[in-house]
Design brief:
single chain; about 350 residues; alpha/beta; four-stranded parallel β-sheet; 17 strands; about 30% helix
Length: about 350
C-alpha cells in the first residue's frame, strides 16, 4: 500500500506512524509546502516549552523509517501538485495540513496597522518563513491587547466575552504566568462572582474548579496597584470587541472599543452564552493580537464551506486532531520527571 500524507505537522506524523505500525507493507510519503517538517511543534510552540517540543524526537524516528520519506517545498493545488495527481499516484491520500489562515472579527478598523493575529505573532517569534519579516513594531507602544514580548511593552490586556474555566491548557499557562517574577496580575473580583449555573459546572469538573481557584487566588492576593516599572497583565472579562479605534493618522490603531457582555442561558441547550448589553468603553493600546480561531485555505478539488472556513469533511480532520492530542499526552513527560 502506498500512501501520501499532506502536511508534516503533528497530525501528519501521528497518522504516518499509525499507518506504518498497522500495515506492514505500507510505504508513506509525507509532503509539505515548507522546506522543514514538524509544523505546529516547530512554529506554534514557544521556545521556552521544551517539554512540548520533545515530541520532535518521536517524529524524527518516524521520518527515519526506511518505508517513510519526507519531501519539502511541495505545494498542494494550482501552484504545485494537484489532488487529482496525488490520487492517481497513491492508494491513499491523507490531508493533514491544518488551518493556515485566521478567522475575522468582521468589525471596523480590523485592517489598521498594529492589528495582527496571534498565529502571525507566534509564527514571527518562531521564525516561520511566512512571518519572519513581519513589520511588528514593539518599540512605539507600552500597551498591547492579548499578548506581550520582550520589548517596551509593559502592560498587556487579555480580553474575553466571559470567564473561561474550561481548558486544561489555560490552567498550565496560568500557573506559568503566576510564576513570572515582577509581573502584576490584575483580575476584578466582581468578575469571578459565580452564578448557580457556574456552581454546577465547577462542581462537575475538576479542571474548571482548579482554574477558578487560580483566578480567585490571583484576584485576592495581588496588591491593588502595580509597583512603578512593574509589568502588568490585566484580565478583562465580560467584554467583546466592537471596533478598532484609529490614530490621528487613520493608519494605525490607537485603541479598542469594547462592549460589555452578560451571561444568559440558552433555552435549548441550557448553557450560558455571552450577549451584548449596549454599554461600551474604550481601551487604549498600540497593538492588538486576535486569537479567535483559525480557518482553512481552500484547495482545488475539495468541497469547501466558506461560512465555516473549512473543508466539508470536517469529521476526518477532527479525528486526525484527536490522534495528535491523545498521542501528545502520552509522550509528554510527567511533572515529576521534568527538571
Amino acid at each position: 500500500m502506498s500512501a501520501c500524507v499532506v502536511g508534516s505537522g503533528p497530525a501528519g506524523f501521528y497518522t504516518a506512524e499509525k499507518m506504518l505500525k498497522g500495515h506492514e507493507a505500507a510505504k508513506i510519503d509525507i509532503i509539505d509546502r515548507l522546506p522543514t517538517p514538524f509544523g505546529l511543534v516547530r512554529s506554534g510552540v514557544a521556545p521556552d516549552h521544551p517539554e512540548t517540543k520533545i515530541v520532535v524526537n518521536q517524529f524524527s524516528r518516524v521520518a527515519g523509517n526506511e518505508k517513510c520519506s519526507f519531501f519539502g517545498n511541495v505545494m498542494l493545488g494550482s501552484h504545485g501538485v494537484s489532488l487529482l495527481e496525488l490520487r492517481q499516484l497513491y492508494d491513499v491520500v491523507v490531508l493533514a495540513y491544518g488551518a493556515e489562515s485566521d478567522r475575522s472579527l468582521g468589525i471596523p478598523g480590523e485592517d489598521l496597522g498594529g492589528v495582527y493575529s496571534a498565529r502571525e505573532f507566534v509564527w514571527w517569534y518562531n521564525g516561520h518563513p511566512d512571518c519572519k519579516a513581519m513589520p511588528l513594531d514593539l518599540k512605539n507602544t507600552d500597551t498591547a491587547v492579548v499578548l506581550g514580548q520582550e520589548s517596551t511593552i509593559r502592560k498587556v490586556y487579555l480580553v474575553g466575552r466571559r470567564v473561561q474555566y474550561r481548558q486544561l491548557a489555560l490552567q498550565r499557562n496560568f500557573v506559568e504566568i503566576l510564576g513570572i517574577k515582577g509581573l502584576h496580575v490584575h483580575i476584578q473580583e466582581s468578575d469571578l462572582v459565580k452564578s448557580p449555573t457556574d456552581e454546577v459546572e465547577l462542581e462537575n469538573s475538576r479542571i474548571r474548579k482548579r482554574v477558578y481557584e487560580l483566578f480567585n487566588k490571583a484576584a485576592t492576593s495581588q496588591q491593588s496597584n502595580p509597583i512603578m516599572g512593574q509589568r502588568e497583565l490585566h484580565f478583562i472579562f465580560f467584554r467583546r470587541p466592537d471596533r478598532f479605534v484609529p490614530s490621528e493618522s487613520s493608519l494605525h490603531i490607537s485603541g479598542v472599543r469594547l462592549e460589555k457582555t452578560s451571561l444568559e442561558e440558552n433555552g435549548d441547550s441550557g448553557r450560558q452564552v455571552a450577549v451584548g448589553t449596549g454599554q461600551f468603553d474604550d481601551l487604549n493600546c498600540g497593538m492588538v493580537l486576535k486569537s479567535i480561531g483559525y480557518k482553512s485555505v481552500p484547495v482545488d478539488g475539495l468541497p469547501f464551506n466558506i461560512h465555516q472556513g473549512r473543508e466539508c469533511f470536517g469529521r476526518c480532520k477532527e479525528r486526525i486532531s484527536s490522534i495528535w492530542f491523545t498521542e501528545a499526552r502520552k509522550t509528554r513527560p510527567s511533572p515529576n520527571t521534568r527538571k
